[in-house]
């Protein structure tokens, strides 16, 4: 059989590749001879993926609840994947930054616009039954959600607004983590007593969060933006992409989630206790959390009115 010039070229490139790692090309080619061709189910791991939905009840809508949370976690992973490429990029351009940021916003737009799968897509009766089998667990314990926050902005912008003046860049990470805004969902600041929700979450992830915040301390999205040359920071497309991302994550998604919690937990006189036990009706509101990733990109008035326009 006469070898085509392309085949010749490919073989030469493969030879260079395998020589570089001290591997014999013929052995690799022979491997191809016996190797099974890849299939969709092997490549996408559909069997493993579709066996990850473990219900605790026989209520059909619990499957909707589980899968939608898993979809969120997969999209959170895509968000972190893009953030990592922006923040670890050797020679970052405004074009690359805003394009990737728009990808990330697209993922969060999808998370926000699809939240009605939760708010409209389950029976309240079924939810009020199966939720008792997952208490005290809560989406609050989504580690990737917290990592997206740590990778997006300086730690000071995630500190509970009541304690921000007492914390600066020299504050030990351990102490800073004790004053993050989300501590308020599970800690009584008078007694220091923590809920099981928060204790279990910290036991599992505290060290990983400290290592992650250290890694992103000076390369998070906000720090990366502020390190860009002034004229690049002025790029209107990039500024709009930053504002869109900030508002989508910290107001639009939060309100879709909050309205869903109201639908399922606020139908009696008193709001139902949340599975995680937080004072959710107050805690989950953007105007209360005041979580703003990129403060310099908003006017004084916009910062003042944060989250007030969506109530
Ligand atoms: C019926 C649907 C849902 C309801 C009723 C609901 C309710 C709640 C409530 C009440 C909280 C406050 C913490 C607590 O005490 O539990 C919370 C927190 C949280 N949930 Fe959900 N949730 C729902 C769906 C989801 C989904 C699909 C996700 C996606 C992963 C999610 C992610 C989160 C996160 C990240 C927090 C912490 C938010 C923060 O700290 O600001 N939730 N949820």
Characterise the protein shown here.
With 311 residues, the chain is mainly α. It has one domain (62-310): Methane Monooxygenase Hydroxylase, Chain G, domain 1. Helix content is 60%, strand content 1%. The protein has 17 helices and two strands. It has helices at 5-20, 25-34, 40-43, 46-50, 60-87, 94-113, 116-119, 124-134, 143-152, 173-177, 196-216, 221-226, 230-233, 236-265, 280-283, 286-289, 300-304, and strands at residues 187-188, 193-194. It has a two-stranded antiparallel sheet. A hairpin with a 4-residue loop joins strand 1 and strand 2. The longest helix is centred in the last third of the chain and has 30 residues, at 236-265. It is globular, with a radius of gyration of 24 Å. Bound molecules: protoporphyrin IX containing FE. Protoporphyrin IX containing FE binds next to helix 5 and helix 14.
Summarize it.
This protein has a single domain, classed as Up-down Bundle (Methane Monooxygenase Hydroxylase, Chain G, domain 1).
Give the tags.
1% strand, 311 residues, Methane Monooxygenase Hydroxylase, Chain G, domain 1, binds protoporphyrin IX containing FE, globular, mainly alpha, single chain, two-stranded antiparallel sheet, 2 strands
Question: What is the general shape?
Answer: globular
Overall tally of structural domains: 1
Here the CATH topology equals Methane Monooxygenase Hydroxylase, Chain G, domain 1
Low-confidence stretches: none
Q: pLDDT average, as an integer?
A: 92
Task: Report the CATH C-level class.
Answer: Mainly Alpha
Task: Work out the oligomeric state of the chains in this entry.
Answer: single chain
Strand order of the largest sheet: 1-2
Q: How many alpha or pi helices?
A: 17
Task: For the record, give the distance between the C-alpha atoms at the N and C termini, rounded to a whole number.
Answer: 73 Å
Report the major sheet: 2 strands, antiparallel
Ligand roster: protoporphyrin IX containing FE
- Extended strand count: 2
* Order of SSEs: HHHHHHHHHHEEHHHHHHH
Q: Any guess at the CATH architecture?
A: Up-down Bundle
Q: Structural class per helix/strand content?
A: mainly alpha
Amount of helix: 55-70%
């Amino acid at each position: 059989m006469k070898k085509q010039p392309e085949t010749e070229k490919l073989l030469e490139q493969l030879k260079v590749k395998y020589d570089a790692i001290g591997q014999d090309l013929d052995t690799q080619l022979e491997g191809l001879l016996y190797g099974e061709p890849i299939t969709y189910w092997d490549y996408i791991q559909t069997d493993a993926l579709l066996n990850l939905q473990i219900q605790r009840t026989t209520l059909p809508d619990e499957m909707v609840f589980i899968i939608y949370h898993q979809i969120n976690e997969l999209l959170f992973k895509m968000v972190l994947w893009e953030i990592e490429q922006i923040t670890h990029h050797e020679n970052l351009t405004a074009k690359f930054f805003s394009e990737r940021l728009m990808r990330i916003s697209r993922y969060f737009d999808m998370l926000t616009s699809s939240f009605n799968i939760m708010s409209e897509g389950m029976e309240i009766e079924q939810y009020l039954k199966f939720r008792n089998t997952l208490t005290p667990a809560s989406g609050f314990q989504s580690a990737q959600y917290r990592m997206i926050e740590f990778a997006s902005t300086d730690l000071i912008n995630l500190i509970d607004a009541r304690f921000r003046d007492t914390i600066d860049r020299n504050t030990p990470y351990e102490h800073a983590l004790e004053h993050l805004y989300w501590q308020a969902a599970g800690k009584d600041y008078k007694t220091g007593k923590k809920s099981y929700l928060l204790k279990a979450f910290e036991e599992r992830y505290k060290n990983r969060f400290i290592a992650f915040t250290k890694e992103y301390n000076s390369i998070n999205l906000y720090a990366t933006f502020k390190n860009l040359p002034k004229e690049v920071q002025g790029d209107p497309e990039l500024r709009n992409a930053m504002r869109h991302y900030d508002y989508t994550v910290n107001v639009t998604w939060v309100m879709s989630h909050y309205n869903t919690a109201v639908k399922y937990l606020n139908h009696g006189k008193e709001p139902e206790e949340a599975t995680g036990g937080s004072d959710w009706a107050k805690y989950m509101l953007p105007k209360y959390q005041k979580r703003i990733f990129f403060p310099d990109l908003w006017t004084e008035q916009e910062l003042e009115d944060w989250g007030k326009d969506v109530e």
